[in-house]
Design a protein that fits this description.
About 60% of the residues lie in helices and about 0% in strands. The protein is built from four helices and no strands. The protein is elongated. The termini are far apart. The mean pLDDT is about 85.
Length: about 100
Amino acid sequence: MKDLDLYGKLVDLYAGDELPTELRDELEAAAYGNAELSHEMATLKRTVELVRGTPRPDFTEESFHRILMRLYTRGVPPQPTAPTPSHLQYRLPISG
């Protein structure tokens, strides 16, 4: 039972092809005796392959502003995580 819990935790690494070959082989061998584990491994692997095969969407400046406007209209104040640029850090007095 303990091994099945461990194998259940390794399914996501198996689906992403991130396991070493000996561990992957051991996991596949354990899946022969457990239909639930086998089903989870197969469906998650297919899902990961489909997601990786999907082309990435274009995120343009227009997309950013459209999303920002939707947030404003729904009353959500956006909190950017980008650091303040260093050139805005100090204010120098203008003389002359």
